[in-house]
Amino acid sequence: MIGRRGMLGGAVAAGLARPAIAAGSKTLSIVPQANLNSVDPIWSTSQISRNLGFMVFEPLYGRDAHGVPHPQMVEADQMEDGGKRWTMRLRPGLVFHDGEKVRAQDCVASLRRWMQRDSVGITLTARMDALEAADDRTIVWRLSKPFPHMRALLSKVVQPVLMMPERVALTDPFKQITEVIGSGPFRWLADEHVLASHAGFARFDRYVPRDEPASYMAGGHRVLVDKVEWKMIPDAGTAANALMTGEIDWIEIPLPDLLSMLRTAPGVKTGTLDKAGQIMMLRPNHLIGPTNLAAVRLTMQAAIKQAEVVSAVMGADPANGISGVGFLATGKREVDDAGLDVVLKRWTPDELKAMLDKSGYAGEKLVLLHATEHIFFNPMGAVVAEMLTKAGMTIDDQAMDWATVQTRRISKEPLDRGGWSMFPSVVAVAEYRDPLLTGFMRGNGKDGWFGWPSVPRMDEIYESWLGTVDPAEQTRLEREYELEGLRTLPFIPLGRFRQTAAWRDNLTGLLEGPSVVFWNVTKS
Q1: Is the CB of residue 484 less than 8 Å from the CB of residue 457?
Q2: Beta strands in 324-479 (DSSP E)
Q3: Are the beta carbons of 134 and 104 closer than 8 angstroms?
Q4: Confidence (pTM)
Q5: How do residues 103-129 score in pLDDT, each as one tens digit?
Q6: What is the pLDDT of residues 379-418, one digit of tens each?
Q7: Dihedral sign, CA of 140, 109, 43, 501?
Q8: pLDDT in tens, 164-176
Q9: Are the beta carbons of 123 and 132 closer than 8 angstroms?
Q10: How is the beta sheet containing 74-80 ordered, strand by strand?
Q11: How far apart, in whole angstroms, are the C-alpha atoms of residue 381 and residue 33?
Q12: Residue 510's Cα: distance from chain center in Å?
Protein backbone atom coordinates (compact mmCIF):
# COMPACT_ATOMS: atom_id res chain seq x y z
CA MET A 1 0.00 0.00 0.00
CA ILE A 2 1.22 3.49 -0.82
CA GLY A 3 1.99 5.35 2.38
CA ARG A 4 3.96 8.11 3.93
CA ARG A 5 7.27 6.31 4.27
CA GLY A 6 8.58 7.45 0.90
CA MET A 7 8.64 10.99 2.21
CA LEU A 8 11.57 10.24 4.50
CA GLY A 9 14.31 9.63 2.00
CA GLY A 10 17.72 10.22 3.49
CA ALA A 11 16.86 13.55 4.97
CA VAL A 12 17.17 12.65 8.63
CA ALA A 13 20.89 13.19 8.52
CA ALA A 14 20.66 16.48 6.66
CA GLY A 15 20.73 19.84 8.39
CA LEU A 16 19.11 23.13 7.47
CA ALA A 17 20.78 24.98 4.65
CA ARG A 18 20.12 28.31 6.37
CA PRO A 19 21.99 29.47 9.48
CA ALA A 20 20.50 28.64 12.84
CA ILE A 21 17.74 31.08 13.68
CA ALA A 22 16.78 30.00 17.18
CA ALA A 23 19.93 30.94 19.04
CA GLY A 24 18.42 33.94 20.83
CA SER A 25 16.56 33.11 24.01
CA LYS A 26 13.68 35.38 23.10
CA THR A 27 12.97 34.04 19.62
CA LEU A 28 10.75 30.98 19.24
CA SER A 29 11.34 29.05 16.01
CA ILE A 30 8.60 26.66 14.91
CA VAL A 31 8.02 24.34 11.97
CA PRO A 32 4.27 24.67 11.35
CA GLN A 33 2.09 21.89 10.01
CA ALA A 34 1.89 23.28 6.46
CA ASN A 35 2.91 26.20 4.29
CA LEU A 36 1.13 29.46 5.04
CA ASN A 37 -0.93 30.15 1.92
CA SER A 38 -3.48 32.65 3.24
CA VAL A 39 -3.27 35.35 5.91
CA ASP A 40 -7.08 35.62 6.07
CA PRO A 41 -8.60 33.24 8.66
CA ILE A 42 -12.12 34.19 7.55
CA TRP A 43 -11.54 33.55 3.84
CA SER A 44 -9.71 30.27 4.52
CA THR A 45 -10.66 27.39 6.82
CA SER A 46 -7.11 25.98 6.80
CA GLN A 47 -5.59 25.30 10.20
CA ILE A 48 -2.43 27.23 9.40
CA SER A 49 -4.44 30.38 8.60
CA ARG A 50 -6.45 29.84 11.77
CA ASN A 51 -3.24 29.60 13.81
CA LEU A 52 -2.07 32.91 12.36
CA GLY A 53 -5.48 34.36 13.13
CA PHE A 54 -5.28 33.45 16.80
CA MET A 55 -1.88 35.17 17.07
CA VAL A 56 -2.66 38.42 15.25
CA PHE A 57 -6.37 38.88 15.87
CA GLU A 58 -8.58 38.31 18.90
CA PRO A 59 -11.96 36.66 19.46
CA LEU A 60 -14.72 38.10 21.59
CA TYR A 61 -14.77 34.80 23.51
CA GLY A 62 -12.14 32.11 23.98
CA ARG A 63 -12.45 28.47 24.98
CA ASP A 64 -10.43 26.95 27.76
CA ALA A 65 -8.69 23.59 27.52
CA HIS A 66 -11.94 21.85 28.49
CA GLY A 67 -13.94 23.51 25.74
CA VAL A 68 -15.76 25.97 28.01
CA PRO A 69 -16.18 29.46 26.47
CA HIS A 70 -15.10 32.54 28.45
CA PRO A 71 -15.13 36.26 27.66
CA GLN A 72 -11.88 37.36 25.98
CA MET A 73 -12.24 40.78 24.34
CA VAL A 74 -15.57 41.05 26.12
CA GLU A 75 -15.53 42.47 29.64
CA ALA A 76 -19.10 41.49 30.46
CA ASP A 77 -22.18 40.26 28.61
CA GLN A 78 -25.89 39.87 29.23
CA MET A 79 -28.41 37.50 27.66
CA GLU A 80 -32.05 38.59 27.80
CA ASP A 81 -35.42 37.35 26.58
CA GLY A 82 -34.30 33.72 26.50
CA GLY A 83 -31.43 34.51 24.16
CA LYS A 84 -33.21 36.87 21.74
CA ARG A 85 -31.10 39.82 22.92
CA TRP A 86 -27.40 39.83 23.74
CA THR A 87 -25.40 42.81 24.98
CA MET A 88 -21.59 42.64 25.02
CA ARG A 89 -19.32 45.22 26.63
CA LEU A 90 -15.73 45.34 25.38
CA ARG A 91 -12.77 45.47 27.75
CA PRO A 92 -11.16 48.91 28.09
CA GLY A 93 -7.71 49.46 26.63
CA LEU A 94 -8.06 47.27 23.51
CA VAL A 95 -5.95 48.67 20.70
CA PHE A 96 -5.09 47.60 17.16
CA HIS A 97 -1.51 47.19 15.98
CA ASP A 98 -1.72 50.50 14.09
CA GLY A 99 -2.47 52.31 17.37
CA GLU A 100 -6.20 52.81 16.80
CA LYS A 101 -8.61 51.88 19.59
CA VAL A 102 -10.78 48.82 19.10
CA ARG A 103 -14.39 49.96 18.83
CA ALA A 104 -17.69 48.11 18.82
CA GLN A 105 -18.09 49.36 15.24
CA ASP A 106 -14.99 47.36 14.25
CA CYS A 107 -16.45 44.29 15.88
CA VAL A 108 -19.82 44.66 14.16
CA ALA A 109 -18.13 44.90 10.75
CA SER A 110 -15.95 41.88 11.60
CA LEU A 111 -18.95 39.85 12.72
CA ARG A 112 -20.89 40.69 9.58
CA ARG A 113 -17.99 39.60 7.35
CA TRP A 114 -17.56 36.33 9.21
CA MET A 115 -21.29 35.59 9.14
CA GLN A 116 -21.22 35.54 5.34
CA ARG A 117 -18.57 32.79 5.26
CA ASP A 118 -19.50 30.51 8.16
CA SER A 119 -22.48 28.14 7.94
CA VAL A 120 -23.57 28.78 11.53
CA GLY A 121 -23.03 32.50 10.96
CA ILE A 122 -25.42 32.29 7.99
CA THR A 123 -27.96 30.53 10.22
CA LEU A 124 -27.56 33.26 12.82
CA THR A 125 -28.03 35.95 10.15
CA ALA A 126 -31.38 34.44 9.20
CA ARG A 127 -32.69 35.01 12.73
CA MET A 128 -31.05 38.40 13.28
CA ASP A 129 -33.19 41.53 13.50
CA ALA A 130 -30.27 43.82 14.27
CA LEU A 131 -26.56 43.86 15.10
CA GLU A 132 -25.35 47.27 16.12
CA ALA A 133 -22.82 49.28 18.09
CA ALA A 134 -24.71 51.10 20.83
CA ASP A 135 -21.52 53.03 21.62
CA ASP A 136 -17.78 52.51 21.11
CA ARG A 137 -17.66 49.65 23.62
CA THR A 138 -21.11 48.07 23.40
CA ILE A 139 -22.33 45.48 20.88
CA VAL A 140 -26.05 44.65 20.80
CA TRP A 141 -27.69 41.69 19.07
CA ARG A 142 -31.45 41.52 18.58
CA LEU A 143 -32.73 38.19 17.24
CA SER A 144 -36.11 36.90 16.06
CA LYS A 145 -35.53 33.53 17.76
CA PRO A 146 -33.76 32.61 20.99
CA PHE A 147 -30.09 31.76 20.58
CA PRO A 148 -28.57 30.77 23.92
CA HIS A 149 -25.46 29.35 22.20
CA MET A 150 -23.80 32.71 21.48
CA ARG A 151 -20.74 32.22 23.69
CA ALA A 152 -20.08 28.75 22.26
CA LEU A 153 -20.52 30.00 18.69
CA LEU A 154 -18.28 33.06 19.03
CA SER A 155 -15.49 30.95 20.57
CA LYS A 156 -15.40 28.41 17.72
CA VAL A 157 -12.07 27.01 16.56
CA VAL A 158 -12.72 26.21 12.89
CA GLN A 159 -13.08 29.44 10.89
CA PRO A 160 -12.97 31.43 14.14
CA VAL A 161 -14.72 34.72 14.82
CA LEU A 162 -11.89 37.27 14.90
CA MET A 163 -12.01 41.06 15.17
CA MET A 164 -10.40 43.38 12.63
CA PRO A 165 -10.41 47.14 12.06
CA GLU A 166 -13.61 48.21 10.31
CA ARG A 167 -11.75 49.22 7.14
CA VAL A 168 -10.25 45.71 6.89
CA ALA A 169 -13.48 43.94 7.85
CA LEU A 170 -15.31 45.72 5.02
CA THR A 171 -13.27 43.61 2.56
CA ASP A 172 -15.49 41.37 0.43
CA PRO A 173 -15.65 38.13 2.47
CA PHE A 174 -15.04 36.14 -0.72
CA LYS A 175 -11.77 37.99 -1.31
CA GLN A 176 -8.68 37.85 0.91
CA ILE A 177 -7.69 40.76 3.11
CA THR A 178 -4.51 42.57 2.09
CA GLU A 179 -3.79 44.32 5.40
CA VAL A 180 -3.06 42.09 8.40
CA ILE A 181 -3.84 44.34 11.36
CA GLY A 182 -5.38 42.93 14.52
CA SER A 183 -5.40 43.56 18.24
CA GLY A 184 -3.92 40.22 19.28
CA PRO A 185 -0.77 39.58 21.29
CA PHE A 186 1.43 39.26 18.17
CA ARG A 187 2.03 41.63 15.25
CA TRP A 188 2.33 40.23 11.73
CA LEU A 189 5.69 41.10 10.15
CA ALA A 190 4.65 41.49 6.52
CA ASP A 191 8.13 42.41 5.31
CA GLU A 192 9.52 39.10 6.59
CA HIS A 193 7.00 36.85 4.86
CA VAL A 194 8.54 34.59 2.23
CA LEU A 195 5.93 32.31 0.65
CA ALA A 196 6.48 28.63 1.51
CA SER A 197 9.58 29.53 3.53
CA HIS A 198 9.23 31.98 6.42
CA ALA A 199 6.72 33.99 8.46
CA GLY A 200 7.47 36.26 11.40
CA PHE A 201 5.48 37.60 14.34
CA ALA A 202 6.60 40.10 16.98
CA ARG A 203 5.18 40.56 20.46
CA PHE A 204 2.72 43.47 20.50
CA ASP A 205 3.95 45.58 23.39
CA ARG A 206 0.69 47.49 23.80
CA TYR A 207 -1.36 44.33 24.23
CA VAL A 208 -2.95 44.04 27.69
CA PRO A 209 -3.80 40.41 28.60
CA ARG A 210 -6.67 39.48 30.85
CA ASP A 211 -5.67 39.16 34.49
CA GLU A 212 -6.41 35.44 34.58
CA PRO A 213 -4.38 32.25 34.12
CA ALA A 214 -4.10 31.12 30.51
CA SER A 215 -6.03 28.05 29.40
CA TYR A 216 -5.89 27.55 25.63
CA MET A 217 -7.82 30.53 24.14
CA ALA A 218 -9.18 31.68 27.51
CA GLY A 219 -7.52 33.78 30.18
CA GLY A 220 -4.46 35.99 29.84
CA HIS A 221 -2.56 35.70 26.55
CA ARG A 222 0.85 36.65 27.99
CA VAL A 223 3.60 36.56 25.40
CA LEU A 224 6.90 35.66 27.07
CA VAL A 225 9.18 35.79 24.00
CA ASP A 226 10.06 38.69 21.73
CA LYS A 227 9.38 36.98 18.44
CA VAL A 228 7.94 33.85 16.85
CA GLU A 229 9.26 32.58 13.52
CA TRP A 230 7.59 29.95 11.38
CA LYS A 231 10.08 27.99 9.28
CA MET A 232 8.36 26.03 6.50
CA ILE A 233 10.60 22.97 6.12
CA PRO A 234 8.90 20.61 3.68
CA ASP A 235 11.06 17.58 4.43
CA ALA A 236 10.04 15.92 7.69
CA GLY A 237 13.46 14.38 8.28
CA THR A 238 15.23 17.70 7.87
CA ALA A 239 12.83 19.28 10.35
CA ALA A 240 13.40 16.51 12.88
CA ASN A 241 17.18 16.83 12.54
CA ALA A 242 16.93 20.62 13.02
CA LEU A 243 14.97 20.08 16.24
CA MET A 244 17.50 17.58 17.59
CA THR A 245 20.41 19.93 16.88
CA GLY A 246 18.61 22.91 18.40
CA GLU A 247 18.31 24.85 15.14
CA ILE A 248 14.58 25.07 15.73
CA ASP A 249 12.55 24.93 18.94
CA TRP A 250 9.29 23.21 18.07
CA ILE A 251 7.68 21.02 15.40
CA GLU A 252 3.92 21.39 15.43
CA ILE A 253 3.27 17.98 13.83
CA PRO A 254 6.29 15.69 13.33
CA LEU A 255 5.97 12.78 10.93
CA PRO A 256 4.69 9.90 13.11
CA ASP A 257 7.39 7.55 11.79
CA LEU A 258 10.04 9.83 13.32
CA LEU A 259 8.52 9.99 16.79
CA SER A 260 10.43 7.02 18.20
CA MET A 261 13.68 8.78 17.29
CA LEU A 262 12.52 12.12 18.69
CA ARG A 263 11.30 10.55 21.94
CA THR A 264 14.81 9.31 22.72
CA ALA A 265 16.73 12.32 21.40
CA PRO A 266 18.60 14.35 24.05
CA GLY A 267 17.06 17.74 24.66
CA VAL A 268 13.74 16.90 22.95
CA LYS A 269 10.30 16.40 24.47
CA THR A 270 7.17 15.06 22.81
CA GLY A 271 3.55 15.24 23.86
CA THR A 272 -0.05 15.42 22.74
CA LEU A 273 -1.36 18.95 23.14
CA ASP A 274 -4.72 18.29 21.47
CA LYS A 275 -6.25 15.55 23.60
CA ALA A 276 -9.50 15.44 21.59
CA GLY A 277 -7.81 15.15 18.21
CA GLN A 278 -8.96 15.48 14.63
CA ILE A 279 -11.60 13.79 12.50
CA MET A 280 -10.17 12.60 9.19
CA MET A 281 -12.61 12.88 6.34
CA LEU A 282 -13.07 12.57 2.61
CA ARG A 283 -15.16 15.45 1.28
CA PRO A 284 -17.15 14.54 -1.86
CA ASN A 285 -18.46 17.11 -4.30
CA HIS A 286 -22.26 16.99 -3.99
CA LEU A 287 -22.82 19.18 -7.06
CA ILE A 288 -20.86 17.22 -9.68
CA GLY A 289 -21.43 13.60 -10.71
CA PRO A 290 -20.89 10.88 -9.94
CA THR A 291 -20.26 11.84 -6.28
CA ASN A 292 -23.55 13.78 -6.25
CA LEU A 293 -25.31 10.40 -6.07
CA ALA A 294 -25.89 9.21 -2.50
CA ALA A 295 -25.59 5.57 -3.59
CA VAL A 296 -22.12 6.26 -5.04
CA ARG A 297 -21.03 7.94 -1.80
CA LEU A 298 -22.34 4.98 0.22
CA THR A 299 -20.36 2.62 -2.00
CA MET A 300 -17.26 4.74 -1.49
CA GLN A 301 -17.69 4.52 2.28
CA ALA A 302 -18.16 0.74 2.08
CA ALA A 303 -14.94 0.43 0.06
CA ILE A 304 -12.88 2.46 2.52
CA LYS A 305 -11.54 0.66 5.59
CA GLN A 306 -10.96 3.19 8.34
CA ALA A 307 -8.41 1.01 10.13
CA GLU A 308 -6.15 0.99 7.06
CA VAL A 309 -6.43 4.75 6.62
CA VAL A 310 -5.54 5.28 10.28
CA SER A 311 -2.63 2.86 10.03
CA ALA A 312 -1.22 4.63 6.97
CA VAL A 313 -1.56 8.06 8.58
CA MET A 314 -0.28 7.23 12.05
CA GLY A 315 2.45 4.77 11.09
CA ALA A 316 4.73 4.27 14.10
CA ASP A 317 2.31 6.08 16.43
CA PRO A 318 -0.71 3.70 16.34
CA ALA A 319 -1.83 4.46 19.90
CA ASN A 320 -2.98 7.90 18.76
CA GLY A 321 -5.16 6.60 15.91
CA ILE A 322 -8.84 5.68 16.29
CA SER A 323 -10.95 3.79 13.74
CA GLY A 324 -14.56 2.66 13.70
CA VAL A 325 -16.06 6.12 14.20
CA GLY A 326 -18.82 8.24 12.71
CA PHE A 327 -19.34 12.00 12.84
CA LEU A 328 -20.19 13.19 16.35
CA ALA A 329 -18.13 12.75 19.51
CA THR A 330 -20.68 13.67 22.17
CA GLY A 331 -19.57 11.10 24.72
CA LYS A 332 -23.06 9.54 24.60
CA ARG A 333 -22.97 5.97 23.34
CA GLU A 334 -26.51 6.15 22.02
CA VAL A 335 -25.39 9.00 19.74
CA ASP A 336 -21.78 8.23 18.86
CA ASP A 337 -22.39 4.52 18.13
CA ALA A 338 -25.63 5.03 16.19
CA GLY A 339 -25.47 3.42 12.74
CA LEU A 340 -21.85 2.34 13.05
CA ASP A 341 -22.65 -1.11 11.66
CA VAL A 342 -22.26 0.32 8.13
CA VAL A 343 -18.83 1.70 9.07
CA LEU A 344 -17.62 -1.46 10.81
CA LYS A 345 -18.90 -3.99 8.25
CA ARG A 346 -16.21 -5.70 6.17
CA TRP A 347 -17.69 -5.76 2.69
CA THR A 348 -16.64 -8.54 0.33
CA PRO A 349 -15.53 -7.73 -3.23
CA ASP A 350 -18.75 -9.24 -4.57
CA GLU A 351 -20.85 -7.08 -2.23
CA LEU A 352 -18.96 -3.96 -3.26
CA LYS A 353 -19.42 -4.79 -6.93
CA ALA A 354 -23.16 -5.26 -6.41
CA MET A 355 -23.39 -1.92 -4.59
CA LEU A 356 -21.44 -0.18 -7.33
CA ASP A 357 -23.57 -1.71 -10.08
CA LYS A 358 -26.76 -0.45 -8.39
CA SER A 359 -25.37 2.98 -7.50
CA GLY A 360 -25.70 4.65 -10.88
CA TYR A 361 -21.93 4.77 -11.36
CA ALA A 362 -21.07 4.27 -15.04
CA GLY A 363 -17.29 4.21 -14.99
CA GLU A 364 -16.80 7.99 -14.90
CA LYS A 365 -13.55 9.28 -13.50
CA LEU A 366 -13.44 10.72 -10.00
CA VAL A 367 -10.95 13.56 -9.56
CA LEU A 368 -9.06 13.35 -6.26
CA LEU A 369 -7.34 16.54 -5.11
CA HIS A 370 -4.29 14.98 -3.42
CA ALA A 371 -2.05 17.20 -1.27
CA THR A 372 1.11 15.15 -1.55
CA GLU A 373 3.33 17.40 0.61
CA HIS A 374 1.01 17.26 3.65
CA ILE A 375 1.96 14.86 6.44
CA PHE A 376 -1.59 13.57 6.90
CA PHE A 377 -3.43 14.37 3.67
CA ASN A 378 -0.86 12.57 1.53
CA PRO A 379 -1.31 9.10 3.08
CA MET A 380 -5.07 9.67 3.40
CA GLY A 381 -5.33 10.41 -0.31
CA ALA A 382 -3.06 7.53 -1.33
CA VAL A 383 -5.01 4.92 0.64
CA VAL A 384 -8.40 6.24 -0.47
CA ALA A 385 -7.33 6.20 -4.13
CA GLU A 386 -6.09 2.62 -3.81
CA MET A 387 -9.24 1.36 -2.07
CA LEU A 388 -11.66 3.04 -4.46
CA THR A 389 -9.69 1.75 -7.44
CA LYS A 390 -9.88 -1.80 -6.06
CA ALA A 391 -13.65 -1.34 -5.69
CA GLY A 392 -13.94 -0.67 -9.43
CA MET A 393 -13.93 3.12 -9.59
CA THR A 394 -11.80 5.14 -11.99
CA ILE A 395 -9.68 7.54 -9.93
CA ASP A 396 -7.87 10.50 -11.43
CA ASP A 397 -5.38 11.02 -8.60
CA GLN A 398 -4.12 14.57 -9.14
CA ALA A 399 -1.01 15.40 -7.08
CA MET A 400 -0.60 18.99 -5.87
CA ASP A 401 0.30 20.98 -2.79
CA TRP A 402 -2.24 21.91 -0.11
CA ALA A 403 -2.37 25.53 -1.26
CA THR A 404 -3.50 24.37 -4.70
CA VAL A 405 -6.14 22.12 -3.16
CA GLN A 406 -7.54 25.12 -1.32
CA THR A 407 -7.75 27.05 -4.57
CA ARG A 408 -9.17 24.18 -6.63
CA ARG A 409 -11.85 23.18 -4.12
CA ILE A 410 -13.59 26.54 -4.59
CA SER A 411 -14.56 25.54 -8.15
CA LYS A 412 -18.09 24.39 -8.96
CA GLU A 413 -17.15 23.66 -12.57
CA PRO A 414 -17.56 20.24 -14.24
CA LEU A 415 -14.65 17.82 -14.03
CA ASP A 416 -13.48 18.57 -17.57
CA ARG A 417 -13.20 22.28 -16.71
CA GLY A 418 -11.08 22.03 -13.58
CA GLY A 419 -13.72 20.62 -11.26
CA TRP A 420 -13.16 17.99 -8.64
CA SER A 421 -14.81 14.97 -7.02
CA MET A 422 -13.23 14.70 -3.56
CA PHE A 423 -10.38 15.73 -1.28
CA PRO A 424 -9.14 14.58 2.16
CA SER A 425 -9.24 16.97 5.08
CA VAL A 426 -9.61 17.09 8.86
CA VAL A 427 -11.74 18.92 11.38
CA ALA A 428 -11.31 19.32 15.13
CA VAL A 429 -13.17 16.79 17.27
CA ALA A 430 -13.76 19.67 19.70
CA GLU A 431 -16.26 21.16 17.21
CA TYR A 432 -18.24 17.91 16.99
CA ARG A 433 -19.28 17.50 20.63
CA ASP A 434 -22.79 18.49 19.57
CA PRO A 435 -24.39 19.71 16.30
CA LEU A 436 -23.84 23.46 16.90
CA LEU A 437 -20.50 23.86 15.10
CA THR A 438 -20.69 20.89 12.73
CA GLY A 439 -20.45 23.04 9.62
CA PHE A 440 -19.01 20.23 7.48
CA MET A 441 -22.02 18.01 8.31
CA ARG A 442 -24.61 20.60 7.43
CA GLY A 443 -26.91 20.02 4.47
CA ASN A 444 -27.38 23.70 3.65
CA GLY A 445 -26.27 23.57 0.02
CA LYS A 446 -24.77 26.75 -1.43
CA ASP A 447 -24.39 28.20 2.07
CA GLY A 448 -22.29 25.24 3.17
CA TRP A 449 -18.60 24.39 3.07
CA PHE A 450 -16.87 23.29 -0.15
CA GLY A 451 -18.72 20.29 -1.54
CA TRP A 452 -22.06 21.98 -0.88
CA PRO A 453 -24.27 19.06 0.25
CA SER A 454 -27.98 19.86 0.04
CA VAL A 455 -29.79 17.63 2.51
CA PRO A 456 -32.90 19.43 3.83
CA ARG A 457 -33.52 16.81 6.50
CA MET A 458 -30.05 17.40 8.00
CA ASP A 459 -30.79 21.09 8.44
CA GLU A 460 -34.30 20.44 9.76
CA ILE A 461 -32.76 18.33 12.53
CA TYR A 462 -30.10 20.99 13.09
CA GLU A 463 -32.68 23.76 13.46
CA SER A 464 -34.73 21.60 15.84
CA TRP A 465 -31.64 21.02 17.97
CA LEU A 466 -30.96 24.76 18.10
CA GLY A 467 -34.52 25.31 19.27
CA THR A 468 -34.56 23.02 22.29
CA VAL A 469 -32.92 23.21 25.70
CA ASP A 470 -34.31 19.87 26.90
CA PRO A 471 -31.35 17.47 27.36
CA ALA A 472 -33.34 14.36 26.46
CA GLU A 473 -34.65 15.97 23.28
CA GLN A 474 -31.17 17.22 22.39
CA THR A 475 -29.82 13.67 22.70
CA ARG A 476 -32.64 12.27 20.55
CA LEU A 477 -31.95 14.86 17.86
CA GLU A 478 -28.20 14.28 18.02
CA ARG A 479 -28.78 10.58 17.36
CA GLU A 480 -31.07 11.40 14.44
CA TYR A 481 -28.49 13.86 13.09
CA GLU A 482 -25.78 11.20 13.24
CA LEU A 483 -27.96 8.62 11.49
CA GLU A 484 -28.99 11.03 8.75
CA GLY A 485 -25.33 11.85 8.23
CA LEU A 486 -24.51 8.18 7.71
CA ARG A 487 -27.43 7.85 5.29
CA THR A 488 -26.43 10.83 3.14
CA LEU A 489 -22.69 11.26 3.82
CA PRO A 490 -21.97 14.99 3.67
CA PHE A 491 -18.44 13.72 4.21
CA ILE A 492 -17.05 10.21 4.63
CA PRO A 493 -15.43 9.68 8.05
CA LEU A 494 -11.98 8.10 7.71
CA GLY A 495 -11.10 7.76 11.42
CA ARG A 496 -9.57 10.05 14.01
CA PHE A 497 -6.13 10.81 15.34
CA ARG A 498 -4.42 12.72 18.10
CA GLN A 499 -1.36 14.53 16.82
CA THR A 500 1.89 14.53 18.76
CA ALA A 501 4.10 17.62 18.93
CA ALA A 502 7.84 17.80 19.61
CA TRP A 503 9.82 20.63 21.20
CA ARG A 504 13.13 21.43 22.86
CA ASP A 505 13.22 20.77 26.59
CA ASN A 506 14.08 24.40 27.36
CA LEU A 507 10.49 25.36 26.44
CA THR A 508 7.87 25.39 29.17
CA GLY A 509 4.27 26.50 29.47
CA LEU A 510 2.91 24.94 26.25
CA LEU A 511 -0.89 24.99 26.42
CA GLU A 512 -3.26 22.15 25.55
CA GLY A 513 -6.08 22.72 23.09
CA PRO A 514 -7.39 21.98 19.58
CA SER A 515 -4.75 24.22 17.98
CA VAL A 516 -1.24 25.40 18.74
CA VAL A 517 -0.92 28.73 20.57
CA PHE A 518 2.26 30.61 21.46
CA TRP A 519 1.44 32.63 24.54
CA ASN A 520 2.40 31.40 28.02
CA VAL A 521 5.50 29.73 26.50
CA THR A 522 8.88 30.50 28.04
CA LYS A 523 12.28 29.68 26.56
CA SER A 524 15.23 29.37 28.91
Answers
A1: yes
A2: 365-371, 394-400, 422-428
A3: yes
A4: 0.92
A5: 999 999 999 999 999 999 999 999 999
A6: 999 999 999 999 999 999 999 999 999 999 999 999 999 9
A7: negative
A8: 999 999 999 999 9
A9: no
A10: 74-80, 85-90, 138-143, 128-135
A11: 17
A12: 19
